[in-house]
Specification:
Helix content is 37%, strand content 21%. By secondary structure, it is α/β, with parallel strands linked by helices. It folds into 2 domains: 150 residues, NAD(P)-binding Rossmann-like Domain (Rossmann fold, 3-Layer(aba) Sandwich), CATH 3.40.50.720; 249 residues, 2-Layer Sandwich (Dihydrodipicolinate Reductase, domain 2). The chain has a 7-stranded mixed sheet with strand order 12-11-7-10-9-8-15. It has a 6-stranded parallel sheet with strand order 3-2-1-4-5-6, with helices on both faces. It has a two-stranded antiparallel ribbon with strand order 13-14. Helix 1 packs across helix 13. It is globular and about 50 Å long. The mean pLDDT is 96. The structure holds nicotinamide-adenine-dinucleotide. The site of nicotinamide-adenine-dinucleotide (NAD) has 20 residues, from helix 1.
Amino acid sequence: MPKPLKLGLVGAGFVARFHCIGLKQVRGVEVAGITALKGAEALAQSAKEWGLGEPVVYPSIAELAGNVDVVALFAPNFARVAMMEELVGAVKAGAVLKGVICEKPLGRTVAEARRLVELARSAALRTAYFENQIFMKPIRAALAQLEPVQKAMGPLSLTRSSEEHGGPHEGWFWDPTKQGGGVLNDMGCHSIAVGWYALTPRGKSITFLQPQSVSAEVALLKWGQPSWRAKLLKDRGVDYSKVPAEDFATGMITYKNPETGQKVKAQFTNSWMFDKQGLRLFMDGMGPGYAFEVNTLVSPLNIFIGDAAAEAIKDAETALEKATATRGLLAVQPNEADLYGYTDENEDALAAFNQGKDGQLPWSYGLEITRLVIASYMAAETRKTVDLTDPATVKALETYVPLIAQGRGAEVL
Ligand SMILES: NC(=O)c1ccc[n+]([C@@H]2O[C@H](COP(=O)([O-])OP(=O)(O)OC[C@H]3O[C@@H](n4cnc5c(N)ncnc54)[C@H](O)[C@@H]3O)[C@@H](O)[C@H]2O)c1
């Protein structure tokens, strides 16, 4: 048996904890170290209890890097570039790493994402961009089941993807200058990626379909209303009367199959104003004579809790990520980390790094997703369809910083 890979986590918040839960199902890995501004000790304790290893809490990324095989960047978007600079500094000073993982989004702008890719290359690091939805078992199973049908009838021509919930759990997500925008940057990256992936004919590379054009709209539909704005200011310390971000985004991306010339379309919709049981991932796809549909609010498990019994429930999120209710008919997902693809994306990255390869989704792919997200902001903010085959537009995207991310959302929302 080869020795387990030593995984080091940067960040010990929401997503780092979710990954640890997913790692309970992954073999050949131990959580060996954690560094974070807050929460590292508590996560290290949970990881121990879950049998994931004996993680040591390190005071810096450099010290973590010197004691693990793989580093996972699970900290906020605004800290990415500085963290990666520190990590590359440690590698150049002698730390030996098999690979580096980065959570979505790779960057808040194309320039930031490109910088991340270049930094990894400068230290010859293998990379994995974490887009969990591409690894969701229902998505993989749908595409495997449809493979013979696709061969006979032709590929999918339309996908519709959405990720929606009632709003993020930490203040920095709501602040567009820190996060890089609103829900389009936060969750549009997921829906754009999974839509593109599902449209891709089986067996072709992840970027086989060529993006042609993007149209999009963004809006502030709920959290700009006075009472919700006041709640946001009180609970999260973010003032949407001054620095608003979008809580709704929708758009359409057209792709071309370079072998057949066929145009196919992926629609995405994302919101932080989804007042249902909790997080919902919804994807469907249409091909000639066939279709698939995934809806994560449909669980084999329903639980009913009446008003009298509800007082016993402290944490709504035991049912579902971003759950908003503890009573009534609840949708409950018994293994969200597996359902949402965290387990499988970790397995993929660690197996690839063990073989000296990039994960299935290298950072160069994360850069492509950032480009599509930024093109969506450009389309929404200029109210024009963005032509991704036009060299001048492609160049402009390299330096585009959405008005919303600049804190000038009031001009467009
Ligand atoms: N794949 C998904 O569905 C998903 C879900 C949630 C978050 N994410 C992504 O994961 C990343 C982290 O999000 P989160 O929800 O865990 O955030 P969080 O705010 O819950 O946790 C962030 C963690 O990073 C630490 N941190 C912050 N700044 C730091 C710094 N400069 N140095 C070291 N540690 C620092 C914090 O102390 C905390 O432990 C984000 O990029 C987010 O987009 C992805």
